Sequence to fold (382 residues):
Amino acid sequence: MRIASVSFHGVAVTPRTNWSFLRVQDEEGRVGWGECTLAGQEPLMEREVRRLATAVSGQDSRARNRLARLIPHAPGGLMAHTVVSAFEQALFDLAGQRAGEPIHALHGGALREAVPLYANINRGAERTPAGFAAAARRALDQGLEAVKLAPFDPLVWEEAGERAHRAAYAEGIARVEAVREAIGPDRALMVDAHWRFSPGGAAELIRDLDGVRLHWLECPVSEANHAEIRRLRGLANTRGVRLAGAETLAGLGAYRPLAEAGLYDVWMPDIKHAGGHAEILRIGALALACGVEMAPHNPTGPVAHAHSLHLCAAIPNLWRLEVQFGEAEAFFTLAPGHSLRFEAGHGTLPASPGLGVMLDERAAAASPWRPHDRPWLDPRLG
Fold:
């Protein structure tokens, strides 16, 4: 039961994407997997995993509450939270294997036989209005009837006085309108603003997208700007649009102010960052008590997706789970075991003990992570 080793595995998936994984092996030979993908932070992640390995080697892998406790004010910030979250995921994988049950059974059993998904088309699209529209149609062809895009890079509101700013804004609006036309009037369409707007600019955006019939607007302004988020939520709600956010927050305590101030209609905790399974179930319970929907953030690799399926099976106030659509076939092949392919817009639940998939270590080693000196997304905000 004791932890024999903890190691970091970074994999180059495309010329612009790395996925990062954490492997935990116990003394009886079981291997548990977690995912700690955080774009551009691979060297720091690897170093943090080595530090963690020194701290937990020889410890009882059943002691999740002690070993994988997330402390929100820890000085390592999001990077450290992501490593702790991946470690907790891997310990749940080991626990399920020991118990002979899938992870969702350890959560008290599944509330649904399959998890509804929505397609994040951002990485699988040519970044033109026509390219986004084509990616949206491909998602519909695979049964995914709700679509999200992040159309406003490289805009940031601090550069609003520059000539390129208005051009980037107009291009973003055109991308959204093209996707709405491609998917028709009745399917859910979401826009991720990646914190790129000032409060006034976000209000303008809500007005300019009034005819597009958004399901939600995500992360329009800095997560710390509570008063303006609440105002923008009201503005969006009067137009039948939800406000969504909180994808990078970690720990239950970080969500308490959201609940107290009524900031979002939809919370989006990410199993890679928020603390893992147990912490997100607590966050979900708080959201349920406040009448808030849950739509976990999940735009990366197959291990995070498999863990998120187990988690979402046990969340009563779930809307849909995000999935990165159309980026790489490795999403379906790098972690063999239970099939992660979409079925009628849903992800099916693994039934085998633990996570139900394991990283193909040979394939991972054959494609080690690569630094991206010129990232394809704006490194300031993603």
